[in-house]
Amino acid sequence: MSKGSPRIMILYASYGNGHLQVSHAIESELRRRGMNDVVLLDLMAEAYPLMYEINKFVYMQCFKNIPQVYGWIYDKTKHMQSDSPLGNLLHCLGMTKLKEYLLNEKPDLIIHTFPQAAVPLLARQAVNSPRNVTIITDFDLHGRWLHPGVDRYYVATDDLKSEAIDRGICSERIIVSGIPLMPLFDEPAEQLSGLPDGLTLDPDRKTVLLMGGAYGAMRNCDEICKHLSLEPDLELVIVCGRNDALCRRLTSLFKDHPNVHVLGYVNQIFVLMKYSSCIITKPGGITLSECIACSLPLFLYSPVPGQEHGNALYFEGKGAASISYEPEELVRQICALVRNPEAVNATRNRMKSLHKPKAAETIVDDLFKNLLHLNTELLGV
Questions:
Q1: Is residue 84 domain-shared with residue 197, that is, in the same domain?
Q2: pTM for this model (two decimals)
Q3: Is 351 exposed, middle or buried (0-12, 13-18, 19+ CB in 10 A)?
Q4: Is 1 a domain residue?
Q5: 96 and 227 part of one domain
Q6: Would you tell me how many other CB atoms lie within 10 Å of the CB of residue 66?
Q7: Closest CA to 146 of 96, 56, 83
Q8: Is 70 helix (H, G, I), strand (E, B) or coil?
Q9: Which residues contact 174 (CB under 8 A, 6 or more apart)?
Q10: Is 14 a domain residue?
Q11: Residue span of the signal peptide, if any (predicted)?
């Protein structure tokens, strides 16, 4: 181990923003504990900059325009073995660049927030390789996350742990931690700062939060918003993210509607979640974890085949979400829930049962105690 503070490397990928958010949450907790020698690395971007940009563009286009193809590939490879020909090929990606980083940086620990197994593959080939752990950032388990060379897995649910065990991972190497979020998601609503500038919510209406900007506009977004705007007891907050075209279009469409609020990128999304009655969103693992932390009833619209669909089915099976594929069906589901206080409370309670608070603290506690073997007084910093 390095003298002084251990050297920690966090590997992520920027396919979407979720893996990076988890990486930042872990980095923040490590630094809070006094671990200042932490580096984040997008391995694929560093190893293959041009190919990576092309691959990311193709991935996003498949995800948006031909999701059935993406889903078919996901399903066909979901149970692949780490030592299969495809598994070995994927695990070798970035290997040369990784060896260079390991030689130069000499980390004591590597944390994965994206399913790339070059590190555990190296660990099985070399002596004195760094310890490595994986934080699984979905509620649906794909074979790419699993490799016998991983020292520790951190998963969102007991069900995921059971599935990983069924696939041959030793129980002692799996910790049910939840998915790490930024600390503000663990704060009570009354302790948070106010709503985004210029936004005022009517306390006599139910607030519906619609996340419309991920990977381009949500399918049928305009039609969904029009339907919801006609419901007299609802107030609609639309977050367009960095989708400027969607923000301009919806702002123009609803400029005269007092109960529809169109926002661009929002830093205080946790505040909006805490004050909302329900949310319409895509079922990414990090977004779902944020909703669990806020006990916010979920309406999952047209989930893309693949991990999104798997995530959505899991939450629907737990009674924590409703899935729909048509705007009218979605609006019926929302109205039926928010107008029934008992149903709302029951849904929130089911979401609370899924919540694993302070996941980043749980993970760092375990890293300190069982992998880095640091002094216990650091655990309470």
A1: no
A2: 0.90
A3: buried
A4: no
A5: no
A6: 11
A7: 83
A8: helix
A9: 152, 153, 154, 155, 161, 164, 165
A10: yes
A11: none
Are residues 347 and 204 both part of a single domain?
yes
- 247-252's contacts with Cβ under 8 Å and 24+ in sequence apart are 247/213, 249/222, 250/212, 250/221, 250/222, 250/225
Exposure string for 222-232, b = 16+ CB within 10 A, e = fewer: bebbbbbbebe
CATH of the domain at 76: 3.40.50
Question: Rounded to whole angstroms, how far apart are CA atoms 111 and 52?
Answer: 21
How many angstroms separate the CA atoms of 246 and 147, rounded?
41
pLDDT (tens digit per residue) in 85-143:
777 777 677 777 788 888 888 899 999 998 876 666 666 565 567 889 999 999 999 99
Other residues' Cβ atoms within 10 Å of the Cβ of residue 353: 11
Which residues span the domain enclosing 362? Answer: 8-179+357-380
Q: Contact at 8 Å (CB) between 321 and 298? A: yes
CATH number of the domain at 256, please. 3.40.50.2000
User: Are 339 and 364 members of one domain?
Assistant: no
The number of angstroms, rounded, from the C-alpha of 198 to the middle of its chain's C-alpha atoms is 28
